[in-house]
Specification:
The protein is α/β, with parallel strands linked by helices. It contains twelve helices and 16 strands.
């Protein structure tokens, strides 16, 4: 007998808490369909904006897997001790056609959701695109205001900051998830109208190659991996304790269904798996859902009952010291 994995995010019912996050594995209609077929409750499409510079950046994108010794190898299956290290950009597509295609996929999705993701270059254009998403019938929108590559991108290609949220929120009525960097204000994002927050985008990093004595990938790049999970879980737990009723989508570090459970216990209502889908393929979504189902069945709980349980039992250092003296 299967466990009850249903959750609610941004007021929307999800059949399970596993989401395919925005990235290279959700960059085409075929990719989105594959993630839906794998059982994801939602698929967040690769991010877009109108900036020509951001599109050119994707054409020059490069991806490697770093092993535990920081040695680079071509993109492919990764272990828990590996990291995804990449220089990326935004999709080079006709935006109206892309949004219409996503809306058609969302209509096909049945009990799942297809979610467009916008990154801001010009806020007026972001507002126009958000309105277009709603008018095409899309049911959910992600606004990424914490893109890690922004500080290395060409000027004007990518804007970041919670101050971008209010204009987009006021333009649409569909649920809005706001994707943040670690350290961004969750309270400010919620106050600006976010129906959910996604925590947190990957960090930027720098890795010198010892043999060539040059930078891996030639520059700074975004990094993520299972090692980031405890760092992200702290962000999620802090956000949950500060705003217990907020919808939180956890991202950055989940490799399997047990990591999904860890995110839920920290306070997330759902988990966007991105790097794992890039390196392992959509089947990692199916496997993660099955592992979460097994875990919840063994524990005798629903997915909803897990949300925030561990976070609510966090003690201060002083409280721990007192308990140990008793």
């Amino acid at each position: 007998m299967s466990a009850d994995l249903a959750v609610t995010v941004a007021g929307l019912p999800l059949k399970n808490p596993v989401i395919a996050g925005s990235g290279e594995a959700t960059a085409s209609t075929a990719d989105v369909r594959a993630c839906l077929a794998a059982g994801a409750a939602a698929v967040v499409a690769k991010s877009v904006n109108e900036s020509a510079a951001a599109r050119a950046q994707l054409r020059a994108a490069e991806y490697v897997v770093l092993d535990a010794d920081l040695a680079a190898r071509p993109l492919g299956p990764a272990s828990r001790t590996d990291s995804l290290f990449c220089r990326s950009g935004l999709l080079d597509v006709d935006l109206a056609e892309w949004i219409a295609a996503l809306a058609a996929l969302d209509r096909e999705a049945g009990d799942a959701y297809v979610v467009p993701s916008l990154i801001v270059a010009d806020v007026d254009e972001a507002v126009r695109l958000a309105r277009l998403c709603e008018s095409e019938g899309l049911r959910w929108l992600e606004l990424n205001v914490g893109a890690p590559h922004a500080e290395e991108a060409s000027p004007g290609a990518i804007a970041t900051g919670v101050e971008l949220v209010a204009r987009v929120r006021s333009a649409i009525s569909i649920p809005l998830t706001v994707k943040l960097r670690a350290g961004d204000s969750v309270a400010d994002a919620l106050a600006a109208g976010a129906d959910a927050v996604c925590l947190a985008t990957r960090a930027m990093a720098f890795v010198p190659d010892l043999e060539t004595r040059r930078p891996v990938l030639g520059t700074f790049a975004a990094i993520g991996g299972a090692w980031a999970l405890p760092l992200t879980l702290r962000e999620v737990a802090k956000a949950h304790l500060a705003a217990p009723d907020a919808s939180i989508v956890g991202t950055n570090g989940a490799r399997d269904g047990y990591d999904v459970a860890r995110f839920l216990l920290a306070g997330a209502s759902a988990v966007a798996m991105t790097s794992a889908v890039i390196t392992e393929g959509p089947e990692v979504l199916t496997q993660s859902i099955a592992q979460l189902d097994q875990y919840c069945t063994e524990q005798g709980v629903t997915a909803r009952e897990l949300i925030g349980e561990a976070a609510r039992h966090v003690h201060t250092y002083e409280e721990v010291a007192i308990e140990r003296r008793l």
